[in-house]
Amino acid sequence: MHSLFHLAFHVRDLVEARRFYGGVLGCSEGRSTDTWVDFDFFGHQLSLHLGEPFATRRTGRVGDALVPMPHFGLILELPQWQAMASRLTDAGTEFVLPPQVRFEGQPGEQWTMFFCDPFGNPIEVKGFRTLAAVYAT
Q: Do the beta carbons of residue 22 and residue 39 sit within 8 Å?
């Protein structure tokens, strides 16, 4: 069974949301009204509603770094992850945790990056050589 994930959260400006999610991240826009817009977030539905974004704090330990909690994210195969890292870098994105590899040579080896959308909503994007390695132990 294949299912889709849906996440709805607040943004302060739909024009800026369209620029970031549609332009920088390359997500296709779906339905919208004056107060919200949907995006196809790599096969999953994001619903961005006008409002005040949720509060986050850097309390999640990733190696030696503290990352924002809560956060949401995406897992891509490595070539797509590398392309996204390039797009974000070219767009001048300020990274919470810059693109890097972790657990190198171990089960679960992955590439990761943390950044925030223009409204402070934290996003983690992970890359794996194969999606079969996501739950490797």
A: yes
